[in-house]
Amino acid sequence: MFCLVEMAQVLGSPPHFVLAVETSGPSTAVVTSHHPERLRRLAGQVTYAIENPQAEFQVRVDTIRISPSHYCFGDNVNMHGGTRDVGIDKRRTSWS
Predict the structure, then answer these.
(1) Per-residue pLDDT averaged across 29-39, rounded?
(2) What's the pLDDT band for 59 if we cut at 50, 70, 90?
(3) Which of 58, 72, 85, 89 is 20 to 30 Å from 50 at the Cα level?
(4) pLDDT at 72 over 60
(5) Separation between Cα atoms, residue 6 and residue 94, nearest integer Å
(6) Angle ∠(55,61,67) on CA atoms, nearest 5
(7) What is the 3-state secondary structure (H, E, C) of the chain?
């Protein structure tokens, strides 16, 4: 029953439009809004600023939410497969 209530809340909620800032790595910044025209305007401003480094603009942010679980501070290693993999402690200067 709880799942049905949760699903009804999701289906009944207003849409959120998303502007994701993509770089050579994973997306680290997203901006959401109920108003797609605001995101289009912001995307145009960001594009213009990238193409014209002397450009300046300001944007007011109503709320900000940061989840530390979505960020990696320090080294990030993805290993798939392998046998007897060992981690390396960079603080050590020799193998022991």
Answers:
(1) 85
(2) confident
(3) 72
(4) no
(5) 54
(6) 115
(7) CHHHHHHHHHHHCCCCEEEEECCCCCCCEEEEECCHHHHHHHHHHHHHHHHCCCCCCCCCCCCCCCCHHHCCCCCCCCCCCCCCCCCCCCCCCCCC
